[in-house]
Amino acid sequence: MNGPDAGAQAPSFEQEIDASGLTCPLPILRAKKALAQMASGEVLRVVTTDRNAIRDFQAFARQTGNVLVAQQEVDGRGVHFLRRR
């Protein structure tokens, strides 16, 4: 998988959301809600099964200013790490 730190070891995180089985826009909406409750600099891990989630989270990070620290594919699931701005 391409993207920031693809293939690198997973970063540490403070909170996790399992959005498996959900399709756009639900994983993004859940991530947005969780990030709003987190402190600046904290990392959110989001697990998704939606094939479009890789691009969706890249666009979400660009639009919101939250940093997409890494994206990985693990056992057919997308794993996204977002740092709260």
Automatic annotation (TrEMBL):
Q: Does the keyword Glycosyltransferase apply?
A: no
Tell me where on the tree of life, at the top rank, the source sits: Bacteria
Q: Which GO MF terms does the UniProt record name?
A: transferase activity
Residue ranges of domain UPF0033 in the record:
17-41
The record's InterPro entries line, in alphabetical order, gives:
TusA-like, TusA-like_sf
Listed A to Z, the keywords are:
Transferase
Is Plastid found in the keyword set? no
Q: PANTHER family from the xrefs?
A: SULFUR CARRIER PROTEIN YEDF-RELATED
Can you tell me which family this protein belongs to?
Belongs to the sulfur carrier protein TusA family.
Write the protein's name: Sulfurtransferase TusA family protein
Species source reads Achromobacter denitrificans (Alcaligenes denitrificans)
High-level lineage: Bacteria, Pseudomonadati, Pseudomonadota, Betaproteobacteria, Burkholderiales
